[in-house]
Write a structure and sequence with these properties.
With 78 residues, this protein is mainly alpha-helical. It has one domain. α1 packs across α2. The longest helix is centred in the middle third of the chain and has 54 residues. It is rod-shaped and about 85 Å long.
Length: 78
């Protein structure tokens, strides 16, 4: 037969284990969030580098695309 003291100890141990699991979960979640945020910061840099490479590979096409896009935006602004 279990006594009230034993039940209390078992509940206390369960709560302690849950606290540890929650702390571990929060630790891993925050690490994953930081890692994802760092990845998101790199996206504009990567996009800029990709754009620079495309302009280097075909500068005339890049100028033509910029001119056409500017013309379209200019007409839309009228």
């Amino acid at each position: 037969m279990a006594t009230a003291g034993n039940e209390y100890d078992a509940i206390r141990d369960d709560i302690s284990a849950l606290k540890k699991q929650l702390a571990d979960l929060l630790k891993h979640t925050s690490q994953a969030a930081r890692s994802k945020a760092e990845d998101l910061r790199e996206i504009p840099e990567q996009a800029g580098e990709t754009l620079r490479e495309q302009v280097r590979e075909s500068p005339l096409a890049s100028i033509a695309i910029a001119f056409i896009a500017g013309s379209i935006v200019g007409r839309m602004m009228r």
